[in-house]
Amino acid sequence: QVQLVESGGGSVQVGGSLRLSCAASENIGGKYCMAWFRQVAGKQREGVAAIDRDGRTRYADSVKGRFTISQDNARTTLYLQMNSLKPEDTAMYYCATLQSDTCPESVRFYNYWGQGTQVTVSS
Asked: Is the dihedral of CA 82, 87, 89, 90 positive or negative?
């Protein structure tokens, strides 16, 4: 049973930066896909970024060039560096993982989730 704990959320002004972290209970990078999702109240959870076990990354069009997903060398912590933040980035951010060679886009495939960390961007 993989446990995930997010941290690093907070309130920031437009154009600011935040770095989210997701600590895993075990080394999972070698066989798992890890991803960040976000959700605004009343809307569907959407994919933000993902990194597969070979280090290949994928980003939502809305965050390309502004967000960077990465892992530490021990593959126990997932990061999301968020720069040039916009009000529309305001959401609860979740990390998620599944044991897979690739990273599916749909939330329904991910079987391990963190509790979420709130990001609020104000103008």
From this structure: positive
**Euclidean distance between CA atoms 14 and 25, whole angstroms:** 33
DSSP 32-43: EEEEEEEE-TTS
Phi, psi of 36 (to 5 degrees): -115, 135
> For 52-99, what is the HEC assignment?
CCCCCEEECCCCCCCEEEEECCCCCEEEEEECCCCHHHCEEEEEEEEE
Mean pLDDT of the chain: 94
Spatial distance between the Cα atoms of 119 and 91, rounded to a whole number of angstroms = 6
pLDDT, tens digit, for every residue of 38-79? 999 999 999 999 999 889 999 999 999 999 999 988 888 999
